[in-house]
Amino acid sequence: MGEFDLIERYFKRPARQPARDSLVRLGIGDDCALLQPRPGTQIAISTDMLVEGRHFFPGVDAQALGHKALAVNLSDLAACGASPLAFTLALALPEANEAWLAAFSNGLFALADHHACELAGGDTTRGPLNICITVFGEVPLQNGASTALLRSGARAGDDVYVSGHLGDARLALELLRGHIQAPEAVLLEARARLERPNPRVALGQALRGIATSAIDLSDGLLGDLAHVLKASGVGASLHTAAVLSRLEADPARLANAGADPAPLSPQQLLALVLAGGDDYELAFTAPADARAAVAAAAASAQTPVTRIGSIDAEPGLRLLDASGAAVDNRFASFDHFRQ
Ligand code: ADP
Ligand code: MG
Description:
By secondary structure, the chain is α+β, with helices and mostly antiparallel strands. Helix content is about 30%, strand content about 25%.
């Protein structure tokens, strides 16, 4: 199968309703795609690359991979409060394996269709498996100003929130690596969260005009929140009990693997949640007088959110236990370049 057959068969689809207000005026097939932003909007763009062996295990389910490759990109749009419109796909493949391509494009388009996000073009080449997607989203302008959620808007006194619950993806990774052991049902659920993250697109849009800053959690809460604090020139205090999520509900299910399995320590549970990575939840800030508005946004997006702390004028990040005492926060956030 040649490159052009492959694109025709697995990636080119009949144009959706040739709607006059669709962003993509010309899709796959020419040298360029043509995008036409609607008046009164800005285009939000983000790119994320997934490399075999670095971001996913060799041999991972192709359908799940198609889902995740787009999901991590949609998560960036969500963090900016943008509505997904279109994406491009650059694909390096070691071989044209039809079963793999069919499963990959199925997973990819199922999520794309769910968010009405259209594949507008891309590139296909032979090489080590590598998937690079660029997404295009829309943010309305208000009186000429952007309504995008940025990292730089957090202010002292704001509340800090996270969506969903954290730590499952890292838990799955440690279970798969054999560092932790748990009942099969725990592995299945954690693995679904690792391989099929659910980008919080509806929540991001619902938070426009309410949240003062937002970021999506790809590298771990502490590391990612630090970007917000730096960009905003503020600090934060977080309550560990609030972030511990349901991992804490029955920690005895989780044990360090080995001849004599010992339950995970409270520090290990915290590390999963605070420095785990790959959660693709949103962390955001909002003024304390916007609590009702945040709750309404979460309800309209059908996405649970938890208030986990507050923004301080004093730089740095402090962790507090239930009694208000300081907790050691030396958890290394996942860093691709740290050995
Ligand atoms: P060129 O050689 O001019 O760069 P290509 O032959 O690479 O063009 O691509 C032909 C058309 O197919 C273009 O419209 C391109 O956007 C599209 N395309 C190529 N690979 C993909 C892919 N993986 N997914 C979607 N569209 C693709
Ligand atoms: Mg090309």
